[in-house]
Amino acid sequence: MQIVFLSVFTVLCSPFLWCLVLLRRQCASKHLLIIQRSKIGDLVCTTPLVRACAQAGYYVTVLTRSGSADVLKHNPHVYGILLDDDPQFVGMVGRLHLFWILFHSRYAISLSVVPGLLSSLCNVWTAAPVRIHTIGRSSGWLERVIERLQKCMTYARGTRTYDHYMQLAQCVGVSPVSYKHDMFLSEEEKRQAAAWLRDHDLEQRSYVVLSVTAGNVLKMWPLERFSELAEQILQQWNVVVVFSSANTEATACAVSLRQYSGSIVDGGGADLRLLAGIITRAAAFVSVDTGPLYIAHAFNVPVVDIVGPVHPDEQPPLSSERVALVLPPATIVPTSFVAETLRTELPEQKRALEETTVEMVYGAFAVMMRRVAPELEKTKRR
């Protein structure tokens, strides 16, 4: 009922907001809002748009969630951060307060980069002279009503998110920038990561990070397979394996699943900024399509992406010398899309994970490592 009330209230206020839009066109504000209320990986993938707008001379504020916002910390292209789940913005009165803050911020441009009714409402309430909202393949009737109050750009399935973001940039006169994800660490955070590595006897050793869980449980690869993958890596490569996850029970379970033939470190429970510092020094990073994978990619760490049910052409890093995409068998169609979050278990989703074998992942890992760090291999191929 809350979202219905907010939508009706917005429609009733729309004539006033439209008049204000016309008046604000005379102002020369250089403040720009980007609305990205999705998870960590999605926010990391939005950083090229942030960089493009900042380099064009705009003061960029990002409206996001507290669970994701840490990836923007110390980003020199970010002028400000608003958290839509801040306690002051929770509930009916809180949402109205958020609208009030957006209304009074006098943004020249507001870009809502992924579909969603609340994002659409926030975009309208900025009363910015230029407001562009991203719409997906289908919208509810209430969303369609709110969409009429602003300019919309359709995000089609299979579109690379980077391409969509650069199209948004060009719509507001901003030149595209290179495909590169951004994340920045302070010197203090680098020292904290170095201390963690010393405490775990990793300062002078090469290590591979296996991130064993995902924010969406329907995209998770079985823990037993991560354990088997770790053993294969330890047998063939002179590295330590670090199991990583915010879920300490998952990493503890991975450590206890077998007697490993090499060194294992339980890296569970590290906060996002510390984890980023640990990842930057890794020889490689392996996970399903989840936030930390995009952090690793931002720091140019070699990554193996277990794509699973995710559409490979939308957001996963581009395949390259330092990026290996492990796709499910070609007969399996994608079931998870950027604009349509996977919420219910589907047969194709299960098959995509079940039919991605340890041999497939290890094979991709080995090929990549022989390109980027051949000196770490124990037994040289003839």
Write up what this structure looks like.
- With 382 residues, the protein is α/β, with parallel strands linked by helices.
- It folds into 2 domains: 2-171, 3-Layer(aba) Sandwich (Rossmann fold); 187-376, Rossmann fold, CATH 3.40.50.
- Helices cover 42% and strands 15% of the residues.
- It contains 14 helices and 12 strands.
- It has helices at 2-24, 40-55, 66-69, 91-104, 117-125, 141-147, 161-171, 187-199, 223-236, 248-256, 272-280, 291-298, 347-354, 358-372, and strands spanning 31-35, 59-64, 78-83, 109-112, 130-135, 151-154, 207-211, 240-244, 264-266, 284-288, 303-306, 323-326.
- The strands form 2 sheets. A 6-stranded parallel β-sheet has the order 3-2-1-4-5-6, sandwiched between helices. Strands 9-8-7-10-11-12 form a 6-stranded parallel β-sheet, sandwiched between helices.
- α2 links the parallel β1 and β2 (59-64).
